[in-house]
Design a protein that fits this description.
The complex is a heterotrimer of chains A (203), B (196) and C (137). The termini of chain A are far apart. Chain A is built from 9 helices and no strands. Chain A has 203 residues and is mostly helical. Helix content of chain A is 68%, strand content 0%. The longest helix of chain B has 26 residues. By secondary structure, chain B is of the alpha+beta class. By secondary structure, chain C is an alpha+beta fold. Chain C has 5 helices and 5 strands, in the order ααβαβββαβα. In chain C, strands 1, 2, 3, 4 and 5 form a 5-stranded mixed beta sheet that branches. In chain C, α2 crosses α4. Chain C is elongated, with a radius of gyration of 17 Å. Chain C starts with 5 loop residues before the first helix and ends in a 5-residue tail after the last helix. In chain C, 41% of the residues are buried. The chains are: A mainly alpha (203), B alpha+beta (196), C alpha+beta (137). Chains in contact: A-B, A-C, B-C. Chains A and C meet through loops of A and loops of C. β2 of chain B pairs parallel with β5 of chain C. Chain A: Belongs to the sigma-70 factor family. ECF subfamily. Chain A: This is RNA polymerase sigma factor. Chain A: It holds the Pfam family Sigma70_r4_2. Chain A: InterPro entries: RNA_pol_sigma-70-like, RNA_pol_sigma-70_dom, RNA_pol_sigma70_r2, RNA_pol_sigma70_r4_t2, RNA_pol_sigma_r2, RNA_pol_sigma_r3/r4-like, WH-like_DNA-bd_sf.
Chain lengths: 203, 196, 137
Amino acid sequence: MQMDRREPVVVIRPDELDETTVVARAQDGDLDAFEYLVGEYQGKLFRLAFRMLNDRGEAEDVVQDTLVACWRKLPLLTHAQAFGGWLYQMATNRCLDTLRRRSIHPETIQEPATLEESAGCTVSGPEAGGDPARAAEISLELDGLAAALETLPPTQRACWLLREIHGRSYAEIASTLKVSEQTVRGRLARARIQLAEKMSQWR
Amino acid sequence: MALDDNIPRLGCGRSIDEVWTTIDQPPNAHEQDCDQCRTARASLAQLSEATRTMRGHDEEDPGLQPRSAVKDAIMSLARAEVRRGNRIPIHQVEQGVIEVSEQAISTVIWFGADALPGVRARRCRVHPDYPDIADNPGPPARTAGLTVDLRIAVATGTYIPEAAHRLRQRITGMITAHVGLNAGTINIVVEDLYDV
Amino acid sequence: MSERPLEARLINSDLVADLAARAALDTPGVLRLEPTLKNLLAHLGAGTAHILDRTRTDSTPTRRDGVFATVHDGVADIHLDIATDIAYTALTVAQAVRVQIARAVSHTGLTPGRIDIAILAIEHPPAATEASRPKPV
């Protein structure tokens, strides 16, 4: 009864499938599918949380909490196509909760950290092209924007990051923050004004 | 939050959104003459540039990833809480029962479907054809058959009846060969199309 | 404790669980034993009930990762959760496991009782990269 073990084995990896199929299999308990999704989203969620919270440790907590909750609640997700938006929603709400806790316990307020200090990274990526002057300029631009972001009210910051850095739709952001799309547009416009003003001061 | 809904306007009456959406275009006649528009355009252009930089930089920066311990922790928890679905009794004799998890059978079905071009197997439910098998122990040995409910996506341009026929044959073959059971009924629902 | 029959002290459920695990892992097509949290709790529950039911016997349930064994009145009952290799027929593998375990239990002098097997996963074995990897010079 043993199978012919020389039968050609076609193993399709999750990255060869569309995301909705991978999500559906993860919903039915496929750990390989889930692990692929963790790999796909952990960086995105970390970048959102890091820019929301400006703290690596807290950002990692948000990523871990979100993806653990994701595994537990996956069977309840009715539209596998909505997976990405659902994850962003859970992560955003965790970030906002963290900020709320900070405002209740103000002793945990962070020193505004520049990217280099907190992320341990240097700006020498491809966009600098090995040009030290351009790298310095990028570094200044990033620090200026990051510092300006810190001054935004949390929900405005979430609106701005979700739309401008993560490219999420107005409808999705509205449903994440439980407000109308018009409110999202209003908050975004206000966020842009404040960021632009702060950055001019920075320079 | 009605206040939140308003798009702020410059003193000249132009809305910030109008300025923002045309930031990459040359200034119009009004914007060339209006001081407020010129100032707003300059600072928004600077923001737009910085936004682009952050978008590109953050995505590429290896420092803006969680440590590998985070993924390890997530996966060990998922493994500890793994969902195998229902356990289906498939063989019952006096000496004991053999069960197989719904998830194990789904794995076999997905694996079989993956070998067929133009078809992607998604959610899968499996039921025993003899749900009472566990309640009727004793010889002669009984082996269950299975009913499979499978949702699939097909590639655009696929002739669906033929694809479904091939998929049914494939699943029947896979369940016989890899699980050791008969698949009685295989219900297939096409829920989506995908582009190739 | 000292009132237990000699046999129970000679061969306890720990040993039976070990034997069953070894017999299963030696059966071709078995990838591993498959412990799960839910299982563990379910079996702990069942085990507790067992103990209460049989307070006058020598039953002491033992669970290993993926194996659960009880011994009472010279009879060993075993439950086993396994993952099998997709290259094999899972039901055939499970039946072979049962035969192997029954044989191993018989060698202890105990009588094999119920041997329940749950196939929780059917998978490809982890890629055999070790063999193809060039040896360091």
